[in-house]
Amino acid sequence: MVKLVAGDKIIECLLVIFDKDGTLVDQHSLLLELAMARMESVQKHIGKKAAAVWEKIVGVDLKNGKIDHNGPLGTAPRREEVLVAAAAFYLNGYSWSEARELAQRAYDEADDSMKPPYGSVMLEGVTETLRRLRGHGLRLAIASTDTHRRTVASFKALGIASFFDAIVGGDDVVNGKPSPDMILEIFKKTGSKPDEAVMVGDSVSDMQMGKNAKVKACIGVLTGSAQREMLERVADVVVASVSDLRVV
Asked: Does pLDDT of 210 surpass 90?
């Protein structure tokens, strides 16, 4: 076992599972670029009026550069957000079947128009921390609500894909966070056990997912949208950033 230090705790483990957005990369810049691409596609397919409804329903205010990090765009897997978008189309006069088809088409075109790393910017000190943890023999994995393809392509563009033994996206499992499905899939891919693993994330759902998967410890970071007091209710320890993690 490797001794991982997080705050005032020393946790013996072999596998560290990370959330992606808000934990390793800046969540706001990523979501803003994603929202802009999807807004342009939505306007193209159903016009500005419906696009304005779409903004509200997914939690976006592009005019002011604001994202609701607790809204559908910030938290939901893509397949769920497409259904939310379809509701905006439905409210603008389309039948439900037409709305779903149009929403899927708009999202596909928007995502295809974007290039890796899709607005992702590494948080300060994180790349070096991942390299250091890997160098000490820890296995690293990703559990992200983003799609598998986008996550892999983004990490390749950022030069960190080789650090990870397993990457699981929201489309790789039936149930998203806080269900344990992503972590259980990582266990299958790595041959790891719950008492060898820790979960690191910026949200309450990340911590709940770790608890539901019965990992050894859940570490909250303050680089996302959740406040310390929210994370402390469910996390075993809260630190400022992934860059604060070290090995002794």
From this structure: yes
